[in-house]
Amino acid sequence: MSALSSQAYKGTRDYYPEDKRVQNYIFAVWRSIAEQYGYEEYGAPTLEPLDIYAAKSGQELANEQTYSFTDRGGRVVAIRPEMTPSVSRMVAARRQELPYPARLYSIANFMRYERPQRGREREFWQLNVDIFGVDDIAAEAEIITMSDAVLKAFGAKDDDFVIKINNRKLINFMMAQYLGLDAVGAQLMVKLFDRKDKISPVDFHDQAREILADDAEEGLQKVDLLLDAKSMADLPAEIRNSSSVVEVQELFTLLERAGVKSAVFDITLMRGLDYYTGTVFEVYDTRPENTRALFGGGRYDGLVGLFGAEPISAVGVAPGGTAIENFLEVHKLVPELVSKTDIYIVVLGDAKRSASKLARDLRDQGVNVELDITDRKLDKQIKTATKKKIPYMLFIGDDEVKTEVYTIKDAFTTTEQKLNFASIVSLIKSKRR
Amino acid sequence: MSALSSQAYKGTRDYYPEDKRVQNYIFAVWRSIAEQYGYEEYGAPTLEPLDIYAAKSGQELANEQTYSFTDRGGRVVAIRPEMTPSVSRMVAARRQELPYPARLYSIANFMRYERPQRGREREFWQLNVDIFGVDDIAAEAEIITMSDAVLKAFGAKDDDFVIKINNRKLINFMMAQYLGLDAVGAQLMVKLFDRKDKISPVDFHDQAREILADDAEEGLQKVDLLLDAKSMADLPAEIRNSSSVVEVQELFTLLERAGVKSAVFDITLMRGLDYYTGTVFEVYDTRPENTRALFGGGRYDGLVGLFGAEPISAVGVAPGGTAIENFLEVHKLVPELVSKTDIYIVVLGDAKRSASKLARDLRDQGVNVELDITDRKLDKQIKTATKKKIPYMLFIGDDEVKTEVYTIKDAFTTTEQKLNFASIVSLIKSKRR
Predict the structure, then answer these.
(1) Cβ A309–B6 below 8 Å, yes or no?
(2) Which of B1, B5, B6, B152 should be substituted to probe chain A, the one whose Cβ sees the most A Cβ atoms within 10 Å?
(3) Which of A99, A188, A331, B53 has a CB 3.0–4.6 Å from the CB of B387, allowing a cystine?
(4) Per-residue confidence at A433, pLDDT binned at 50, 70, 90?
(5) Mean pLDDT of chain A
């Protein structure tokens, strides 16, 4: 038999301890912000019936990007490509019992069959934060404030990112009333706006002209006006006076009060998924290395109702691990991360049995101890400890067994000191926050 | 369109906040023990090529229980049904660079297409703990000691569980030399022993007779001798004197020194997976409610070598979340778990804006605060806070805005006190460990 490949499946990643430390750091920051705002963690299955995505996630995601298959019992299922349908299903299943507003978060993995590229992997991790049961712009304000807080908690500054905000109701008004498009034309134009940063201005105009058909020239002028608008004041009066603008303005007032400085209105922001019904937003890195949206979210009031329950309003956001990691790298915000192991015990001579007992006693005191059980030479044991980036080495040989005083070496400063058991425990505890 | 089902996919579970708290408690205990012993966390992809299971996991697992399918690029893949092949693949991919002994752990989800029943779900979570590069029984001693430590950390006592230990080399000797079976017969007998607790003694004997064929009666007597052996001393001299017994005895010496009191030798323990090469063990609940093994592990020295790398010795164990949860329930070891949210702010009158600022200031001090943003009546807000099991409610109305002294109510004792900002922060910090 020929050897099996040792490579990870295409578009997925193996997280070795040094990679996992970074991921765990990202998860810990996500978790701290979600919990600071009173969100509670939930979990959902990896597999879902495919039709929950077909319903509202959009054709591209459901038909082209899912890992879907028929299980051994004939059910057509998909590895979840996103969390929103799952959490909506869960809320629908306990529509009556849950306390509202329900504030829920999860940290989970997802799969999409896309071409792997920078910031995009076939398997990826996301924080999903959702609030159910608040039919008021205060919900959007909270979710967007949290999005801002997450990036700040990683050490980002206000000008490192921008939060672009729009509203589906405003988009609908713009497409139907302002541009005079029918339902099909409106949908095509939304998709075109959604792709506008990925195609050339010439292509954009050509495709817009095709959608506008009869009134192409007047329509194109109107489209250009929208594209050029830098703020709400630049918009044509017709849009500025539409009723949905009120809730957009209220949102900006709440965000300002909450100290969010990176939010801007952007009439051209569409956000791909079909289930959004009100506010939509996307967060962008201001540095040119990351051109795609870091993450986004919005209001999706109709989704819970698809599962046979009375509809309930919902707003959510979902930052992804890979995009955040790229953001941190570009902005040099990845902290120095060391092993969670405190001490590596290097064993000399016949001290094996005593070393084992020492390790046990230290662990009982809450110290994380790796014990060398290999009977190797001193230099090999030291090499292992160094390679693992463990902060301290403890040396134990016949002398130390007698005196119960051990040599402790700081792996980074290389300074050594001789300490007894109690002092070792104190040293380690003092080094932790 | 008819409504979508709100049920989770068959054999999988939705973890609502109260379920997720229990799971997180289990994960936290797992993590603390793994890290106390100096193991570092890694992560692996959800999907793997199917053939990594076909190689060594055993036919039943690979052919009948995997969630396998062909991806959009024509690759035959499976949702991982276990972690051992993945972590072995990862070690093989960095065979030269990794520091040894490599001590690795992960907490991850897996899927197997099995009939769902008590303690067994189609999607389940496992702690996987593996040590690579120690060709000595000290590795088994460490892994089994950790298995014991995990159950103790949950509050289990020595007589709540038993760790049954056997050795594949001894099993091979028993099948080939003692029972005189050829390779095919030996494999059938191993599978039969593996099923012995699931079938009746009569069925066991009938099937054993069939495998033994010619020498059935003499063979059956020998088999009965093995089944009746309560300790190593009861075994026939032929087995007791075989060379593999030495390492079994050494293992028991090391376990005794490490304070493991629940370990017993069991010549009838087989452990299903094909990749084990030496020590095998399984942990059983001593209470009759849980008859299946809680979890198990063993030595699998050949697996890394399948991935084109030089072989490296390995020992691992993998406790599962569902089995542990059942164990904790039966032994009444699930602790009282409350929300991670510290305070629910109940907002009265026109205090909305001040309440929002107060929430922000408390969060800046590390307090987890859920703010009511619903403009609902007092009783409805209190009901939500109570249902969520949040330890404290804070009431803010016009008076509190003026005085900056707030009413804090302990949700469990229902005692109230009036506190200023600093005192609230102190109160919350003092309640946390």
Answers:
(1) yes
(2) B6
(3) A99
(4) low
(5) 93
Rounded to whole angstroms, the Cα distance separating A264 from A248 reads 11
**Nearest in space to B175 (alpha carbons), one of B297, B268, B56, B281:** B268
List the single residue in B with minimal CA-CA distance to A153: B364
Domain carrying residue B94: 17-330
Size of interface A-B (CB pairs under 8 A): 264
The CA distance from B359 to A142, in Å, is 11
Q: The pTM is what?
A: 0.95
Q: According to the model, what pLDDT value does residue B1 have?
A: 56
Q: Is the pLDDT of residue A262 over 90?
A: yes
Contact B130, B272 (CB under 8 A): no
Please name the residue of chain A whose CA is at the shortest distance from the CA of residue B390: A38
Residue whose entry in the numeric block shows the structure tokens 């909450």: A258
Residue window 370-399, chain B: list those with CB within 8 Å of chain A. 370-375, 383-384, 387-388, 390
Shared domain for A316 and A252, answered yes or no, is yes
Contact (Cβ atoms closer than 8 angstroms) between residue B369 and residue B342: yes
Mean pLDDT over residues A155-179, rounded? 94
Task: Examine residue B7 and state whether it is found in any structural domain, yes or no.
Answer: no
Q: Is A103 on the interface with B (CB under 8 A)?
A: yes
Q: Is A118 on the interface with B (CB under 8 A)?
A: no
Same domain, A350 and A316: no
Choose, out of B7, B13, B14, B310, the residue to mutate when testing the contact with A (most A CBs < 10 Å): B14
Residue of B40, B91, B432 for testing the chain A interface, max A β-carbons within 10 Å? B40
Does the bond joining A101 to the residue before it have cis omega, within 30 degrees of 0? yes
Q: What is the DSSP string of B91-121?
A: HHHTTTTS-SSEEEEEEEEEE-----BTTB-
User: Does residue A368 contact residue A341 with C-beta atoms inside 8 Å?
Assistant: yes
With contacts defined as CB-CB under 8 Å, which chain A residues touch B325? none
- The CATH number linked to A112 is 3.30.930.10
Q: Is A320 in the same domain as A404?
A: no
Contacts of B77 in chain A (CB under 8 A): 9
Q: What is the pLDDT of residues A225-256, one digit of tens each?
A: 888 888 888 888 888 888 889 999 999 999 99
The pLDDT tens digits for A303-326 are 999 999 899 999 999 999 999 999
